[in-house]
Design brief:
This protein is an alpha+beta fold. Helix content is 52%, strand content 11%.
Length: 231
């Protein structure tokens, strides 16, 4: 068998980078959220139907009846249908976005850490997230880093790219609600990168500030990362 040339092996080991338009990622995230929302609604309806069928067949006990409402003018449809339903649906979308982000972040960490030694402590890991991971994913470094020296790190980005163009004709509160859903994917990316390099921690995203702009809203994205003290 003829040996493959060295150039072909090098290209296979380190393939050339393929560039795409930066706006394509924004459009992809929008479509991903919409697709996951529809998929989550279908999965929830299927689970509810299976539960009803099992109750009718006598395989499981019926669910407990809801507590009596304090205000007699409030009907069940006007309270639970408008409040708990969309919240449960968004929670399903949020968990799926985070799961996708964990997978993507782990792959990013493997590629970025291929030629570097293992991390010695949590501070080196946070520096890696603030600089290399943030630049690779969102084209800039973190604007501010704070810590209480007890394993809690707060990373702040004053113009977080994934939610920089989010707006809503329904007002700022609706835009803020959408932004909190969309940051689930970046939070998963950070968590997945930390997990792949051996650091198990929690990542809590927060949208704290909503400055006024003429065409779109810019948000201050804050990520709170908590790592074990002994790492």
């Amino acid at each position: 068998m003829q040996a493959a040339p060295a150039s072909a092996l090098s290209a296979l080991a380190d393939p050339p980078a393929r560039l795409v338009d930066g706006a394509a990622m924004d459009y992809l995230l929008i479509e991903a959220v919409n697709a996951l929302r529809v998929s989550s609604a279908v999965a929830s309806a299927r689970a509810s139907k299976i539960e009803r069928d099992m109750v009718e067949a006598g395989l499981v006990p019926p669910p407990p009846t809801p507590a009596k409402q304090q205000n007699p003018r409030d009907s069940a449809s006007s309270t639970s249908g408008k409040i708990s339903g969309p919240a449960d649906e968004d929670e399903g979308v949020r968990s799926r976005l985070e799961a996708i982000g964990i997978h993507v972040g782990g792959n990013f960490a493997e590629r970025l850490c291929r030629d570097r030694p293992l991390f010695s402590d949590s501070l080196d890991v946070i520096k890696f997230v603030c600089k290399e991971l943030w630049v690779s994913c969102w084209d800039k470094q973190v604007d501010n880093l704070r810590t209480n020296h007890r394993g809690v790190y707060v990373l702040q980005d004053n113009a977080f790219k994934p939610i920089a163009r989010i707006s809503s004709w329904e007002g700022r509160q609706e835009a803020l609600k959408r932004a909190k859903l969309y940051v689930s994917l970046p939070a998963g990316i950070i968590r997945g990168a930390l997990s792949r390099i051996g650091f198990q921690g929690t990542v809590v995203p927060e949208i704290t500030t909503l400055p006024q702009c003429t065409q779109f809203f810019e948000y201050h994205g804050t990520f709170q990362i908590k790592l074990p003290k002994n790492t």
